[in-house]
Design brief:
Layout: E1 29-37, E2 42-53, E3 56-68, E4 74-89, E5 92-106, E6 110-114, E7 136-150, E8 155-179, E9 184-192, E10 195-212, E11 215-232, E12 236-244, E13 262-279, E14 283-299, E15 306-310, E16 313-322, E17 327-338, E18 357-371, E19 374-390, E20 396-416, E21 419-433, H1 435-438, E22 452-460, E23 468-477, E24 480-481, E25 489-490, E26 493-506, E27 509-518, E28 526-528, E29 534-536, E30 541-549
Parallel strand pairs: 6-8
Antiparallel strand pairs: 1-2, 1-30, 2-3, 3-4, 4-5, 5-7, 7-8, 8-9, 8-10, 9-12, 10-11, 11-13, 13-14, 14-15, 14-16, 16-17, 17-18, 18-19, 19-20, 20-21, 21-22, 22-23, 23-26, 24-25, 26-27, 27-30, 28-29
């Protein structure tokens, strides 16, 4: 939500994700991008736009990647895509697109699960202990069509039909369980049979806009639906016995004893009406109502099918008032129904499908235009949702409710003609409530949520070399609860990235050379992979890339 979500007729409580397709135009373009880094990753991308007629143009590209990671796992990937754009007359546009991503020969890094309230004993970076086989193999596909047509008298019709698919032919979870301070534990591989997640979805929106002097009114009628079958589970548990961090593990040998799988099907439709009003120099107001019907059918092996249903009414209202030419006040409230995913890989009920959850958000704040090029935004927020996590039996389930209340602020724009800033911070008081907290089984702090999240980026264009810009990015996280009982925390973490871009001509064409170093001071820390489960963060990595038109 917040000020940035105003202008979206159907926002969601925890934010709006606004994707857009690159539109092939009437200019022929061929460009390339290549990169390498000190972890030995490398990539090559090629993109092209080819006008086929005055109303039809084709865009496409491919990328090949060799990926290398902080834990010394490696893999390969190639990606292809096409986008056909047809615009038979002004105000009418149809785009059809297709893309596919293949990942293969990818390895499974260790997830560390200590036996008590302590962090893993500093496993080394850039060391892979195996097993080297099996390896990850997956194909992701996405294709669809969007249409946007504007007619006379303020009418506009938008729609889209989409299909996406994740086809995992080989995947696994590599766990080091019961990890002791001396680096010993028990390594367990959870190896999955082929699994598949697909989704077919569509949306249609009809909008009518009309003016009343300085006021613009827009009314939207919206409908969307999706069908999402999912096949998962049936993993084979392979106990490799006692191990010590640093000792290699031999590749696993097929065949593996897989179990029966679970089928999960989600069907959902949503219909809504929304209004947007904008009054030049005064402010804007929007509100909407949606009715959704959600049904999840879970078919477990040898058990009766379980059906989870939800059909709430969802509401949103938001407004902004222009106090002065430079100062705007805003506020909003919205409710939503969100997918809560599946139980994480280190849970006793790994991959179990979870019910949909109802969420809500309230926010209010101010935006101040310090100068025409520099803006400051500050606000308060209150987000509420059910709290899912691991219980004392390591089962991932509903444990209560969680509230995220706090203050957020940001500044963005040009400080001087050569210095730009984008900086922001969230100061939060997250709290878990419910029976588990009252009984002392669940801590009051939710897993992995920092009280402070600060980010800042400076971009400076020095006067002594045209085309050069230097950047610095700083990210700070305060301590985060790492166990359900709040007996262990990840410490404060501050990471610094630096880089430079140089724009120049290469064989008469525009080109950009970029150098970047992430985690400049090589900070050693962990990320959470669930309550009490840890993975390393990347160390210092230097990147070099070149982008150019051909």
């Amino acid at each position: 939500m917040g000020l940035s979500a105003q202008g979206f007729p159907f926002p969601a409580p925890t934010g709006v994700v606004d994707y857009s397709l690159r539109k092939p135009g009437q200019e022929r373009i061929l460009s390339a991008f290549a990169s390498i880094d000190t972890y030995s990753s490398a990539s090559l991308e090629v993109d092209a736009v080819v006008p086929l007629s005055p109303t039809l143009s084709l865009g496409g590209g491919f990328g090949v990647y060799r990926n290398a990671f902080y834990n010394a796992t490696e893999g390969n990937q190639h990606v292809e895509g096409l986008n056909l754009r047809w615009s038979p007359r002004p105000g009418v546009e149809v785009q059809s697109f297709w893309s596919q991503s293949d990942i293969y020969d990818d390895e499974f890094g260790l997830i560390y699960v200590p036996a008590g309230a302590f962090l893993p004993p500093n496993p080394p970076r850039r060391r892979f202990f195996g097993p080297g086989r099996p390896k990850y193999r997956s194909t992701a596909r996405l294709f669809g069509t969007t249409a946007d047509a504007s007619f006379g008298a303020g009418w506009r019709v938008q729609g889209g039909l989409f299909y996406s698919e994740f086809d995992d032919r080989s995947t696994a979870t590599n766990l080091l369980l019961g990890l002791q301070p001396d680096g010993t534990g028990r390594q367990t591989i959870l190896l999955d049979p082929p699994t598949k997640l697909a989704s077919t979805s569509g949306e249609l929106r009809v909008s009518k806009s009309f003016r009343e002097g300085p006021r613009l009114h827009i009314v939207h009628a919206n409908g969307r639906a999706r069908h999402r079958p999912d096949r998962f589970g049936g993993f084979a548990r392979i106990d490799l016995g006692p191990v010590r961090i640093g000792r290699p593990i031999a590749p696993l040998q097929a065949p593996f004893a897989f179990g029966p799988q679970t089928n999960n099907v989600i069907d959902q439709w949503t219909a809504g009406l929304a209004y947007e009003g904008r009054w030049a120099g005064v402010g804007e107001l929007s509100f909407g109502v949606q009715k959704t019907d959600y049904k999840k059918r879970i078919e477990r092996p040898s058990l009766p099918a379980v059906v989870d249903r939800a059909d709430p009414w969802l509401y949103n209202v938001a407004g902004a008032v222009q106090i002065t030419d430079a100062l705007v006040a805003y506020g909003g409230y919205t409710t939503g129904l969100e997918e809560s995913g599946v139980a994480p890989e280190n849970a006793a009920n790994r991959d179990e499908a979870l019910p949909a959850i109802e969420t809500s958000q309230r926010d209010a704040g101010l935006r101040w235009a310090v100068t025409p090029q520099l803006r400051v935004v500050a606000g308060v927020f209150d987000v509420r949702k059910p709290y899912f996590n691991l219980d004392e039996r390591n089962v991932f389930r509903l444990l209560g409710d969680v509230k995220h209340q706090g203050i957020e602020a940001s500044v963005a724009g040009a400080i001087t003609p050569r210095l730009n800033i984008v900086a922001g911070g969230v100061f939060m008081r997250p709290r878990v409530t419910g029976e588990g907290v009252r009984l002392g089984r669940v801590g009051r702090l939710p897993i992995g949520q920092p009280a402070r999240n600060l980010q800042g980026n400076l971009d400076w264009r020095p006067p002594w070399l045209d085309g050069l810009s230097l950047e610095t990015n700083v990210t700070h996280l305060s301590r985060r609860a790492a166990r359900l009982d709040n007996r262990l925390f990840l410490p404060n973490r501050t990471l610094v990235d630096v880089g430079a871009r140089y724009r120049f001509k290469l064989a008469g064409n525009d080109a950009t050379l970029r150098v970047r170093v992430t985690n400049l001071f090589n900070v050693y820390d962990f990320d959470l992979r669930g309550a009490g489960a840890f993975d390393l963060i990347a160390g210092r990595v230097a990147f070099l890339s070149l982008a150019t038109e051909l």
